[in-house]
Amino acid sequence: MPSSTHSRRQFLKAGTAASVGAAILSSSAVYAAGDDVLRVGIVGCGGRGTGAASQALRADKNVKLVAIADAFADKLESGLSQLKSQKDIADRITIDEDHKFVGFDCVERMLKSGLDVILLCSPPHFRPAHMKLAVDHGVHVFCEKPVAVDAPGVREVIAACERAKEKKLSVVSGLCWRYHPAVVEALKRMHDGQIGKIMAMQCSYNTGFLWNHGRKENWSDIEYQMRNWLYYTWLSGDHIVEQHIHSLDKLAWAMHDQPPIAATGTGGRQVRTEPAFGHIYDHFAIEYEYAEGVKGFSRCRQQGGCHNDVSDHFWGTNGICHIKSDNTSIEGPNAWAYKDGGQHNMYQLEHDALFASIRKGDPINNGEYMTRSTMLAILGRMAAYTGKRITWDQALNSTEKLGPTSYEFGAFEMPAIAMPGITEFV
Question: What is d(CA 128, CA 213) in angstroms, rounded to the nearest whole number?
């Protein structure tokens, strides 16, 4: 990573800087307009990974899944079995035994086997390293959200996305609302000024408990944490980063992806306090400060038996915009409501866009907003964990790197639960 510090202005420019020298074409781009088979590999065989693989196979009639990777052999086999059970795509799953890759080095070995597209769906901690490897090998990327769990990881992904531009590689993000027609239309209307100048924003991702796989006696600390990765900040970033990023991404989108000035916030563990839930929080409330006095208010909760709310609201000088999946609308002089009524699978649409871009030889690069929205979520976590007002520049230049220094299945003590006013910003 560059040794110089990163500012808000530099971060805005990072995704648009011109490359120096001739662009390097990837192997896929050479025949992008043809009907050649596009060889796909999947990393991470959980629900989102197998979902992404099935959507990739449905996005283009001449795509084949030729390689699969996971840290754990049983997860790999269960994911592969689930994919093969889908009759409409089963005949395009052509994975030989020597194209099944297990372990911490599975991605590097898989990329050497020959791929055109890789789907990065492992726990978020590993995505910066996997992103770098994929771009180094000249492979198009679908990268689930978030792209990192700490600022050094975000900076690594920014650099990888810049190299992807130079190599004319597509990079599509798992921030799927950017591909949902109702939300796309709502944001276009806001950007066109139909609610006037945005003055305040509020987003919620309040939901219930999620899965937990428990612990087996023969699992080491690392294996146990990786199999229950949601509940460890070094693996997931905490749920504000892993899940609530979808809501925060819409705030960022509304602000044309301009970073905030700073954030303050609160959070903690009230209900989900058992050891099975690791050390992450079960609720957050963050206030983001933007230029010209604009405020963004964010809340998220993973607590059972409570009122759920996943929605976003934007107050302008000439109206209000409400977003709740297909139920998007504007109140005010430019009143509007989305009325398409069609069933839109945004997960499928993002893969349709990825593979269409490869065929056309016209790369998509979502790197700018996927790194900014990831950093926005990390900033919120930092503010809540420390209890401090943290500026964007402080957060982006943070040196805190989460997780072990080397990877092997063994002991790894769970970090302490963050305590506002005690936990220090690094």
Answer: 25
CB-based contacts of 174, cutoff 8 Å, min separation 6 = 48, 52, 121, 142, 143, 144, 145, 350, 370
pTM: 0.93
Tell me, yes or no, whether 184 and 173 share the same domain: no
Q: Does some domain include residue 39? A: yes
Q: Are 41 and 67 in contact (CB under 8 A)?
A: yes
pLDDT tens-digit map of 162-205 = 999 999 999 999 999 999 999 999 999 999 999 999 999 999 99
The answer to the question of residue 77 being in a domain is yes
Q: Which domain holds residue 322?
A: 180-341+375-396
9 burial via Cβ count (<10 Å: 0-12, 13-18, 19+): exposed
* pLDDT tens per residue across span 83-100: 999 999 999 999 999 999
Cα–Cα distance between 183 and 253 in angstroms, integer?
A: 10
Listed residue (149, 139, 84, 59) closest to 107, CA to CA:
139
Which residue stretches of 181-327 are H helix?
A: 181-191, 221-227, 233-236, 239-242, 245-254
Report the CATH number at residue 153: 3.40.50.720
